[in-house]
Design goal:
This protein is mainly α. It is built from 13 helices and 3 strands.
Length: about 300
């Protein structure tokens, strides 16, 4: 095989005919360097000699990578909403929904871990638990579910605690959306707009009325209606992810307590009742269909 060597922009570059294709590479940026594959592929460090632990590690590592991307996209969404660039916000919201759908299906891989398989290495995990995922907690905070006591488990890591405290005190994605509604002329109370953002959000009747107006007169408020549907989809898939998590845990360990001391499945079930955007769901009950059609008492209209 003949390898052609040249210098491009001061970098040694190579070219060869391989499998009928002209393949090029250089000593600068490579696939492995760009993706840090050596670091990535050596990050699986089992604490047992049990073969099924590798599945458990990789499954949760990939979840953390997707959570990192979701956090990145949520930042993009918040910036776009503050700049009134709703089309850009919607693009990232669509991406987040797609990521969440992928994460939902990924639980099926972990579900191939039988109860016996998991018990072969569960004892080695000691108190390590998904409850300690700082990215998951940050995502909850940034979407609007503020619970300060949950930072406690990160007291031994000053950097992670600082990130979580900043997310706790900052306006959530929903807070930014409510500010957007106010900028568009909706009567959002000052108590909602200027509240202590570190406290849990409480549903507000005036906010529900605003969403009802938007959803009732869609053509008059299309950009806000479309944004409302995008964030509703985000929560819909997030809740489906939570549900699939709960069912997978139930399938693998039943109703045993979690390794971190939580009640396990029972704790995950409670999370299914938590809402990021409560009025967007509540106002649906109040929506009504206009009365249309003829007098059906006179017989079938067809």
């Amino acid at each position: 095989m003949t390898i052609k060597r040249t210098i491009e922009d001061g970098v040694e570059t190579f070219e060869a005919q391989i499998d009928g294709e002209t393949i090029q590479w250089d000593r600068g940026l490579t696939y492995a360097r760009h993706l840090q594959t050596e670091q990535l592929l050596t990050s699986q460090v089992p604490v047992s000699d049990k073969p099924d632990e590798m599945l458990f590690i990789i499954m949760h590592q990939t979840m953390e990578l997707w959570l990192k991307l979701v956090l990145h996209e949520v930042t993009v969404v918040g910036d776009a909403i503050r700049a009134d660039r709703l089309h850009k916000a919607e693009k990232s919201l669509d991406r987040v929904a797609t990521i969440l759908r992928h994460m939902i299906h990924s639980w099926e891989v972990l579900a191939t871990l039988s109860p016996h398989d998991f018990l072969t290495f569960r004892g080695f995990l000691r108190k390590a638990s998904g409850f300690q995922s700082h990215q998951y907690r940050e995502l909850e905070f940034r979407l609007g579910l503020k619970r300060a006591d949950l930072i406690t488990v990160h007291n031994d890591d000053a950097q992670k605690r600082e990130v979580l405290e900043a997310a706790l005190k900052a306006p959530s994605l929903y807070d930014e959306i409510l500010r957007l509604l106010a900028r568009h002329g909706f009567a959002i109370p000052a108590s909602v707009l200027d509240r202590d953002f570190s406290k849990p959000y409480a549903a507000n009747d005036a906010v529900e009325d605003a969403w009802l107006e938007i959803y009732t007169h869609v053509d008059d408020h299309w950009p806000l209606y479309s944004l409302g549907e995008k964030v509703t989809a985000l929560e819909y898939y997030f809740q489906e992810w939570r549900f699939k998590h709960m069912k997978t845990v139930s399938r693998v360990i039943g109703h045993k307590p979690g390794t971190g001391g939580s009640s396990g499945v029972s704790y995950l079930v409670k999370a299914l009742d938590l809402r990021f955007f409560p009025e967007l769901w509540a106002m649906r009950t109040r929506m009504t269909a206009p009365r249309e059609g003829g007098n059906y008492a006179d017989g079938c209209p067809v």
